[in-house]
Sequence to fold (298 residues):
Amino acid sequence: MDDRTALKAGLFNVLRDVQSFQTTHLFPELWSLANHDEEISSLLHNFYRRLHLPVIARIRRLNPTLDEADAETVAVFISSFVEGSTIFAGHGKPHAGRMADLASIALETLVGMVETMTPERLHALREPWANAPPEISGPAEFLLREPVG
Amino acid sequence: MDDRTALKAGLFNVLRDVQSFQTTHLFPELWSLANHDEEISSLLHNFYRRLHLPVIARIRRLNPTLDEADAETVAVFISSFVEGSTIFAGHGKPHAGRMADLASIALETLVGMVETMTPERLHALREPWANAPPEISGPAEFLLREPVG
Fold:
């Protein structure tokens, strides 16, 4: 199976797993506990690191312009969506019936992003991020400097 | 401010908020509690519903092909990424230093997705999702029927 199909299959299946009672109920406990207990935090993030390793390798094969660190950021982006979907469309959640549509967006948009991202675009917000004022109010200044079309 | 800039600004600022101690620590408690307490679950999802209403309206202005339900699915997709980013790149989390890069992917990829999604592509996986066998193993069959390039 080619890497593109394998990435899509992995996403499809992990979103199906998110809808199991066990995953919807276990992971929010771990996320909460990780904020209170360093050992659980360390075990949880080792779990995610091991989970990401083959995904990072696959991302680099699909997009050789990304180095290991950038491919890891892309993997974390994908995982953020998957884990967050638990809250809205997990087992018994208000948008559980939309998971097929969320999967459709994910397979198209996230896999397309993996294949077309460049290091330059991935790093494009480092300066505005570092220079953003501490208070969060109104639009970030760099956006207002963009040409508005 | 145009809707595209406003959506990007909102994403940028909500990802900055995710990195506050309060948001990183409060929300995982609410996600956990919502699995145990129906009143908290209801309050939490009313909070998200109110949060999503202006986003849904903005998505529909940016992409008039999407009806209210489809625009809500797109809003839930974006929110899933944002909430999930708490776990990996929130306050004190292992990938906190990558949030600028995650924001860069989000502003480009998610806003691009909002502008170009069609109802047909959004609904493309409904049949394979409904027909997927209960056990999760190996690639979903519909993927193997795709032309592999």
User: Anything to note?
Assistant: Chain A has a mean pLDDT of 94. Chain A touches chain B through 76 residues (CB under 8 Å). The helical segments of chain A are 3-18, 21-34, 38-62, 68-89, 99-116, 119-122, 126-131, 141-144. Residues 3-124 of chain A form one domain.
